[in-house]
């Protein structure tokens, strides 16, 4: 089937500030980070769309964009990489800012590595959320010609929009629909081809002493999903397909397995995007999950989001683990 791969969800603006932490602030004892580098990149569904474009060629991103500097920056970062079908969004763009450092006053990496930046703090800002108003005609048209759809839910309203859910319901029987859920988001639409909760999400949704295969089976029943793949980090994933008795454990090749301490930011998006692209090309769900585990493992090994090389910031400031001055703006130190 021809047509674009459509990614629908909450679009965020992410930034990473990296430097050295050789001293502590005398008033609070927190690390003082002397900034060396910084980058901007699309986050949330924006990141999922960029990653999907590596596998699927033409990608359309359906998501909300704020009319503020952060929203305009997002548009510039995405331009020429994916096509955007915007949803109106009141409020300010949601921004996630990570401050990461190496040095004697930085946190110690889980694997003891001293040369790998570790997050000191994450600062979230912005209050933008999609309402329940009518959808633009362009959005309905993109859903109608999609060859596969990935819902990248980040809990800010897009996946809960009644119109979006209705459009998804119309396409479920024609094309693959993959749903990457979020703890603050709604349940996936019934009948999704594949739902991809991570280990923590699956454990919070299904308690008890059962393994993750049992949790995948229960979530498939609860969501009426055709398949559920619980991602397990360095352990790969476990897949349950509706109508089968057992589960499939998909491991990571030993040469791709990374220990604790590696940056895994974006690994879930990489997994979901690769699985969607594989399903769009005609792969079975089992092969799609195997492909996604391999692709996500390579992504983490190669530096995760740090390997994307998006817009660079000016690195001419010192940061004392401080939040942006106004929620409406991107980080104010630039």
From TrEMBL:
GO cellular component terms, A-Z: cytosol
All copies of domain Carbohydrate kinase PfkB, residue ranges: 186-301
GO molecular function, one term: heptose-1-phosphate adenylyltransferase activity
Database matches in InterPro entries: Carboh/pur_kinase_PfkB_CS, PfkB_dom, Ribokinase-like
Keyword tags: Kinase, Transferase
Matching PANTHER family: BIFUNCTIONAL PROTEIN HLDE (PTHR46969:SF1)
Name of the protein this chain belongs to: Bifunctional protein hldE
Protein source organism: Nocardia africana
């Amino acid at each position: 089937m021809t047509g674009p791969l459509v990614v629908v969800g909450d679009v965020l603006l992410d930034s990473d500030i990296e430097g050295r932490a050789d001293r502590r602030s005398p008033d609070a004892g927190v690390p003082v980070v002397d900034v060396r580098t910084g980058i901007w990149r699309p986050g949330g569904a924006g990141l999922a769309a960029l990653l999907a474009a590596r596998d699927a060629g033409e990608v359309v991103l359906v998501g909300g964009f704020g009319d503020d500097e952060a929203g305009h920056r997002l548009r510039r970062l995405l331009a020429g990489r994916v096509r955007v079908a915007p949803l109106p969004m009141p409020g300010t763009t949601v921004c996630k800012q990570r401050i990461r450092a190496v040095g004697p006053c930085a946190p110690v990496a889980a694997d003891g590595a001293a040369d790998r930046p570790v997050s000191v703090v994450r600062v979230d800002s912005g209050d933008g959320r999609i309402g329940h108003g009518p959808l633009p005609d362009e959005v309905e048209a993109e859903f109608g010609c999609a060859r596969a759809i990935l819902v990248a839910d980040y809990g800010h309203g897009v996946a809960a929009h009644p119109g979006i859910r209705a459009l998804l319901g119309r396409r479920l029987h024609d094309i693959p629909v993959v749903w990457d859920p979020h703890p603050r988001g709604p349940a996936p639409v019934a009948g999704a081809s594949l739902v991809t909760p991570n280990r923590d999400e699956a454990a919070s949704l299904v308690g008890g002493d059962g393994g993750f295969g049992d949790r995948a089976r229960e979530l498939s029943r609860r969501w009426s999903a055709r398949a559920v793949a619980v991602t397990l980090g360095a352990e790969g994933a476990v897949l349950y397909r509706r109508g089968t008795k057992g589960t499939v454990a998909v491991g990571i090749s030993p040469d791709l397995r990374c220990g604790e301490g590696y940056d895994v930011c974006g690994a879930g998006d990489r997994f979901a995007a690769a699985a969607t692209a594989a399903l769009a090309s005609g792969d079975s769900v089992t092969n799609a999950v195997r492909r996604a585990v391999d692709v996500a493992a390579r992504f983490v090994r190669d530096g995760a989001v740090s390997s994307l090389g998006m817009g660079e910031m000016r690195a001419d400031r010192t940061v004392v683990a401080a939040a942006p001055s106004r929620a409406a703006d991107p980080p104010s130190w630039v």
